[in-house]
Amino acid sequence: MTRKQAASPLPTARPLRLPISVTRSRPRKPAPVVRSLSAARIGVQVRALRMAADVSAGQLAKVSGISPSLLSRIERGLVSPSVETLERLAQGLHVPTSRFFSDQARRADFCHVRAGRGAVVDRIGAVADYRYELLGHLLSGNLFVEPYMVTLLPGADPYVTFQHPGLKFLYFLSGEVTYRYGAKTVAVAAGDSLLFDATALHGIETIRVRPVSYLSVVFTLRE
After folding, report:
1. Cα gap 61→100, rounded to integer Å
2. Which secondary-structure segment (H or E) carries 63?
3. Whole-model pTM?
4. Domain 119-221 is in which class?
5. Cβ atoms of residues 219 and 203 within 8 Å
6. Using omega within 30 degrees of 0 as the cis cutoff, is the peptide bond preceding 211 cis?
7. How far apart, in whole angstroms, are the C-alpha atoms of residue 206 and residue 177?
8. Domain residue ranges of the chain, discontinuous segments joined by +
9. Domain 37-106 bears CATH identifier 1.10.260.40
10. Whether the Cβ atoms of residue 45 and residue 60 lie closer than 8 Å to each other
11. I need a labelling partner for 26 at 20 to 30 A (CA). Which of 1, 15, 138, 221 fits?
12. Helix (H) / strand (E) containing 37
């Protein structure tokens, strides 16, 4: 025999309806993104080098052959780029891949030399009465820079057989000379500058007006 269901003691009562805000399932919060410290450092380096080169993210992504979204995630330290990706970015930025792994905060590459406080040095193969005052030095990086204030003392003679690796920049502060570079000669006076490959023979051929002083900066790659 089927048992009869007992009648409700409150026949006029309506079913209780809870607010939608209570019954609706709430979306779960996404799990926090765990960033790799190495990826974060690489991302900072990539962004810093890109900004220093005055290149937009879109331009760098295009020349490097990667998607803009991937570049964005790399710069934010959200992904660890592969070696191939880093090589592409390095080529796009015209830097060695090792630059992405250097700690910029620890690099000792700032040097301040006050007027007249440069170190007078005896350079190997220096010509007599050519006074070299070192104006600064760098302890890190792939580029070796030698900035000198060169002063020709009263007994200095012309010398045209300087020759060494690297690029050389000269800015003349005083005097007038004839400067030789290989088979070419040029008249140089205060305010003039020269930039050339230092592997060719070069130097002052004639001293026309004294005193002569100039800024000499040599750029070479570290071995």
Report:
1. 16
2. helix 57-64
3. 0.55
4. mainly beta
5. no
6. yes
7. 6
8. 37-106, 119-221
9. yes
10. no
11. 15
12. helix 37-52
